[in-house]
Specification:
There is one protein chain. The chain is α+β, with helices and mostly antiparallel strands. It has one domain. Helix content is 58%, strand content 14%. It has one helix and two strands, in the order αββ. The chain has a two-stranded antiparallel sheet with strand order 1-2. It is elongated. The chain starts with 5 loop residues before the first helix and ends with a strand.
Length: 43
């Protein structure tokens, strides 16, 4: 297993948290847009 320093872990945690918030925010926005996929219409 790879050992990371405390600074590397905090840096990775920061960027993973930021990415997680970006995914949640974009998901909540995109779910509002109507899309048709394979003939199925979403709202």
């Amino acid at each position: 297993m790879i050992n990371f320093s405390a600074r590397q872990r905090m840096h990775a945690l920061f960027w993973l948290s930021l990415f997680h918030l970006l995914v949640i925010t974009s998901s909540n926005y995109l779910v509002q847009l109507p899309v048709a996929i394979f003939g199925f219409h979403t709202t």
